[in-house]
Amino acid sequence: MPLVRIEISVDGRDEARRIMARFADGKTDPVIEQEVLAAIWKQGRVPRGRPVCLGMTNGRPVLLKFDVDVTPEIS
User: Fold this and answer.
1) Which tens digits make up the pLDDT trace of 1-52?
2) How far, in Å, CA of 23 to CA of 41, rounded?
3) Which residues contact 21 (CB under 8 A, 6 or more apart)?
4) Residue 53 burial (CB < 10 Å; 0-12/13-18/19+)?
5) What would you measure as the largest C-alpha separation in the chain, in angstroms?
6) I need a surface site. Which of 41, 47, 55, 58 has the fewest CB within 10 A?
7) Residue 52 CA from chain centroid, whole number
8) ∠ CA 7-13-15, rounded to 5°
9) Phi/psi at 71 (5° precision)
């Protein structure tokens, strides 16, 4: 089960905490989820599941970290 880590920029810590709380409650943020999945497709990978929110960075800009299960590459 290959995982790909994606980091998405958000507008400040309050916004990051709000999004993280939604994912922790088992809900999603459709805009962020679509942005994460678009980043996966842009890499030429095919997502097999929904993004899993791992947390946020302490730097600026604030980045949310997500892991996404993708199909293995077949050569």
Assistant:
1) 699 999 999 999 999 999 999 999 999 999 999 999 999 999 999 999 999 9
2) 21
3) none
4) buried
5) 43
6) 58
7) 6
8) 80
9) -70, 145
Domain ranges of the chain: 3-69
Element (H, E) at 66: strand 63-69
Structure tokens belonging to residue 73: 């590459």
pLDDT bucket at 59, cuts 50 / 70 / 90: confident
Sign, CA dihedral 40-68-45-65, equals positive
Give the three-class secondary structure for 26. Answer: coil
Provide the pLDDT for residue 73: 77
Residue 67: name the closest of 1, 3, 9, 24 by CA.
3
Distance CA 52, CA 6 (A): 10
